[in-house]
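go over my protein:
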Amino acid sequence: MRTIESVDLLALWERGASRHALDRSALLCARARPELPVDAIADLPLGEITASVLRLREAWFGKRIRAHVNCEHCGERLELIVSVDDLLQTDGPVSRDVEAAGVRCRLPCLRDLAAVVGERDAARGARQLLDRCLLDAGGGGASALSDMALREVEDALEAADPNADLAFDLCCEACGHVGMAQLDAGAVLWDEIDARARTLLGEVHLLAAAYGWTEREILALGAERRASYLSMVAP
């Protein structure tokens, strides 16, 4: 993979701007994994999606990720700087199937999340998700599992696919509260794509108004030359 060109970035941004967050993750993973059929992306384990998207982000914007989160206790806005290598425990799932609490299931995928995304009750949604992933549905499925058994299965799934849910400890410097922060790889990369795309559109607008150039002509300029022209026309 290499740094994305301005024309390609705008085309990608246009394709994903109106999509649901899960569809954007699939779009980004498809860009990271061009060797895979597009239809296969939604069936990849979630951790594999996350690793692919973060590696794509690394190729386009570098290893270091700068993000912000509000302290859940006092509301202080905290800045986080993490690296892709620190976040990823592996570039792929340890195993695609797990056995725990007397059931066998496969790892959840984007298609599974899309099927339960409308469920507002977290506990019900977790059981619906597990029902979709059960490989042996005997004994009443996920609804027959106790809360303890459900947690056991969830722990086994997390151990098999540690990148599926990237979470880390966070300490607020303002109030001392210690909590957890989660990172959505698709959202992080998309926010950066969106910011860069809007910057590019602003540059095109200024240069087109000043010189009458087309978007294609402006984007074909090297970054340094485009910046030089902008410095002469920017208010």
User: Anything to note?
Assistant: The chain has two domains: 1-61+166-235, 97-160.
